[in-house]
C-alpha cells in the first residue's frame, strides 16, 4: 500500500478503524472520513503519534455536497475507497417506521452512491482503482427483525455487482464484504442499553449463534478488505466475500 491513498468512510470506530490501521500500517496514506469529528480527531492524533500516515475529514456520507468537497480536497490518486459507513436498525415490517427507512436509506444506500460517484471519475482518469463495499450476511439471508437493514444491505450488494460490471474495462475492481456478528463497540453499547445487567449472558448467546462459536473481530474483516485491495486480488471483482464464521453456509 506504499504510496497509495485510501479513503475509509466510518473510519473512526469499529470495523472502519481496524481497516484504517491495517492499511496505514502497510504504508498507505489513509483518510478517515467520519461524521463524528471529536472521535475522528482523537483517533487520528493517536495514530499519527504511532507514525502512521492518516488524515481526518469530517464528512456525512448522506450529504452529496460534503462528500464531493472532501473528495475534491484530496490531492493525487484515489487508489482505494472503502464504503464502510453504515447504520443499523432492529425491527420487522410492522415496527419499522418510514423515518427509520429514510434514515437507513440515506446512509447505507445513498452514502455508497455518493462516495462511489465522487471517486469514479478520478479512478477512470488515473487508470484504475478499487472500491470495497461493506454489505452484510443480512443481504442474502433472512434474519429476524432486520427488515430495513437487510433491504439496504441487499442494495449495497447489487450496487457492488453493477459497479464492477460497468467499470471492469476501466481497471476498476469492486467487491463486497459481508460480515456476520462482529464484536465492535456498537455491540457493547447495544447490549448495555437493551439488556442492562445481562450483557455478558446475552453476548454469549449471540456468539453461540456463530458456527465457529464466537463473534468475529474487526481486524478479521480488515484483513479481507486489505486482501481485496491488494494486487494479490487483481483477478477478483464483482463478488461478495463472507466473513461470517460459517453463519450463512453452516448454520445449525
Automatic annotation (TrEMBL):
GO terms for molecular function: oxidoreductase activity. Its EC number is 1.-.-.-. It is an enzyme of class 1 (oxidoreductase). Pfam families: adh_short_C2. Keywords: Oxidoreductase. Belongs to the short-chain dehydrogenases/reductases (SDR) family. This is SDR family oxidoreductase.
Amino acid at each position: 500500500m506504499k504510496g497509495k491513498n485510501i479513503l475509509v468512510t466510518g473510519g473512526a470506530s469499529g470495523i472502519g478503524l481496524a481497516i484504517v490501521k491495517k492499511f496505514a500500517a502497510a504504508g498507505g496514506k489513509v483518510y478517515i472520513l467520519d461524521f463524528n469529528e471529536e472521535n475522528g480527531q482523537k483517533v487520528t492524533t493517536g495514530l499519527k503519534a504511532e507514525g502512521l500516515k492518516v488524515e481526518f475529514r469530517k464528512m456525512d456520507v448522506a450529504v452529496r455536497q460534503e462528500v464531493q468537497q472532501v473528495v475534491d480536497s484530496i490531492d493525487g490518486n484515489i487508489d482505494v475507497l472503502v464504503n464502510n459507513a453504515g447504520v443499523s436498525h432492529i425491527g420487522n415490517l410492522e415496527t419499522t417506521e418510514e423515518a427509520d427507512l429514510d434514515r437507513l436509506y440515506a446512509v447505507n444506500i445513498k452514502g455508497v452512491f455518493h462516495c462511489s460517484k465522487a471517486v469514479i471519475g478520478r479512478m477512470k482518469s488515473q487508470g484504475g482503482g478499487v472500491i470495497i463495499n461493506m454489505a452484510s450476511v443480512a443481504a442474502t439471508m433472512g434474519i429476524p427483525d432486520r427488515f430495513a437493514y437487510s433491504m439496504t444491505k441487499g442494495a449495497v450488494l447489487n450496487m457492488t455487482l453493477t459497479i464492477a460490471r460497468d467499470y471492469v474495462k476501466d481497471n476498476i475492481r469492486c467487491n463486497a464484504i459481508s460480515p456476520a456478528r462482529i464484536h465492535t463497540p456498537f455491540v457493547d453499547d447495544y447490549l448495555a442499553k437493551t439488556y442492562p445487567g445481562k450483557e455478558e449472558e446475552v453476548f454469549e448467546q449471540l456468539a453461540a449463534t456463530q458456527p465457529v462459536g464466537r463473534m468475529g473481530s474487526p481486524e478479521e474483516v480488515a484483513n479481507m478488505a486489505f486482501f481485496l485491495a491488494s494486487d494479490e486480488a487483481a483477478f477478483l471483482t464483482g463478488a461478495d466475500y463472507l466473513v461470517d464464521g460459517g453463519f450463512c453456509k453452516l448454520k445449525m
